Amino acid sequence: MKNNDCCIFACSGPSLNRVDPFSLGLTVIAISTAIRKIPNPDYWVYSDYINEMHGAEGKAAFENPIISKITQKGKERGYGAMVGKNITSYESELTNRNYDKSNVFQSGKIFSKGPHKSISFGIQWAHSVGFKNIIFCGNDLQANSLEEKYCYPLESFDIKKKHNFKRTLDEVQDYMIEWYPIAKEKGYRWFSWECGSIFDGMVEKLTPEIISELTILNNINVHINTDSGNHISVQEPTNSDSNTIMEYHELMKMIKKF
User: Fold this and answer.
1) For residues 202 and 180, is the Cβ–Cβ distance under 8 A?
2) Where do the structural domains in the chain lie, given as residue ranges?
């Protein structure tokens, strides 16, 4: 059973290769070009027109009715003969210009002004539909070159992004620093799942204790050694229903990641 309060944001940074976003049994949301690495997420969030940068995986996902697509009004169409399926679009006011930061995550308003990036659009969408906790993976926020920026091999068409590869990372880092305190004030929590030193130092790091807190595993006896913080023992459920047995096995798969 998935926890409806918590989701995984699979971003396109190289640290995405260190984890399995599906291993926690939570809703997985691929952000923009991360679809090239995570081609079958529960949701795919993007704020640009579908284009070659999303790869063959993006084209397939765009036309796949099983994957829920979330985007801005006016960005519903693809290119060529592509026909998108299962797309929900929202009005938004995203801009890189100055904006009133107090409006971010404002109750009753789905999107406020902020950087024109899929991840800023996605964060506000996720909180607006009820996800209180976001676990980020692949959100490195740093790279020394274009080749080191992504979790997937580059294609020839990716080279056109070489001139501004660092600027976009800096913009995302700047608004996350500004937005995170506001998110916390409103009761939201962000976690870094092996994203690297910059994001690890900005938000809570994902630990076995936090996973145990966030996941819905009420019928499973979980023991964590709080002295070391990294030893977990689990008592296999007996005489339980099939859902609890499934949750137990999901937890065991998750523990192997630590």
Assistant:
1) yes
2) 6-205, 219-255
